[in-house]
Amino acid sequence: MKHTKIHHIYEKVAHGVTISRSESKTLYKQAPLSTLMFLAHQRRKAQTNPDYVGWIVDRNVNITNGCFSQCTFCNFCVKPGDQNEYITTMDQYREKITKLFSLGGNQLLLQGGMHPKLGLSFYTKLFSDLKAEFPELKLHALGPAEIQFMAQKAKLSNRKVLEELTSAGMDSLPGAGAEILVDRVRNIISPRKCNSQQWLDVMLEAHQMGLVTSATMMFGHVETLEERIEHLFRLREVQSQKPDDAPGFVTFIPWPFMSEGTQLLQQQPNIKPVMSAEYIKMLALSRIILDNISNLQASLLTVGKDIAQTCLFAGANDLGSIMIEENVVSSAGVRRTIEKNTLTDTIEKAGFKPRLRNQAYEFVD
């Protein structure tokens, strides 16, 4: 009976038919890794150019390390007012942007935090000042948690906050802070951050405005397999509601929880690291479930070159950015750096052609 059921699921995936939550669980648990990879790779080839793998030059800059949410998986943030708190200055932005431009990039990935003293007016001024001085600069900035926090703080709608930020110069909205979009999990790992529906509501509004957005998942901590699958289906459902002419989620990026030194690991000492096979299986399942999101990025920073190359045969068609600067996962044990040659060589040695892209996943080379 099991043999019949799993082969029926194989046939549905092979013919491009959307599978259910229960079928997704069966596929993950019963399909050999090689079969799951094959099915995901076939889906990838149907959705994107099979010869190309994308990459980008951007720079991850943290606006501040002050954040009241104090998520238990994060080693980077400090409580607002802490002696080690900082807010990046305009002179520091100038230095970072000049370096970015010298390396051929034009985008900042600006990550913030819920700082009680930094509201909407701070961010609109920052974005407009950056764009006035560097008109060609692209700002891939903040995330739904920060948008929801600003809206609540200013007693404004998500729509109004997004309109103000885009008018000031924000070009696209990252899918930061998704973690696992199930409140049981969020109440353990990030109880002071927006809940799952609030995160999704911000993205629904961004899609109605035509903003480029991305989606993410951090897994391998306190969530169950069923909750990972629920996360994927909630993203899929939001993507299905975008206007036809809106980009919506242009990509999905899953990465494993990096536990070193985190409060979450101290609280949950039985958490085990995500092994390579588990990461590849989860990435492949993501490609199969998220059949309405064209691009899937493997996390080279967290899994390394060898596994990233394998992921290119398991549904992934992108390896992300060179790593000029990264502060969050490096504070939890990641020691890798990523240069241009690292990315392009990794792609070429796997048998694909590297293509430089922008945040909308349009090739620019």
Quick structural summary:
[4Fe-4S] cluster binds at residues 67, 71, 74. Helices cover 45% and strands 13% of the residues. It has 365 residues and is of the alpha/beta class.
Integer-rounded radius of gyration: 20 Å
Ends: how far apart? Answer: 51 Å
For the report, how would you describe the main beta sheet? 4 strands, parallel
- Tally of individual helices: 15
* Total DSSP E strands: 10
Q: Architecture in CATH?
A: Alpha-Beta Barrel
**Broad shape:** globular
CATH homologous superfamily annotation: Aldolase class I
SSE order, one letter for each helix or strand: HHHEEHEHEHHEHHEHEHHEHHEHE
* Assembly state: single chain
Binding site for (3R)-3-methyl-D-ornithine: 299, 321
GO molecular function: 4 iron, 4 sulfur cluster binding; 7,8-didemethyl-8-hydroxy-5-deazariboflavin synthase activity; metal ion binding; transferase activity, transferring alkyl or aryl (other than methyl) groups
Keywords: 4Fe-4S, Iron, Iron-sulfur, Metal-binding, S-adenosyl-L-methionine
InterPro entries: Aldolase_TIM (IPR013785), CofH/MnqC-like_C (IPR045567), Elp3/MiaA/NifB-like_rSAM (IPR006638), F420 (IPR034405), FO_synthase_su2 (IPR020050), rSAM (IPR007197), rSAM_sf (IPR058240)
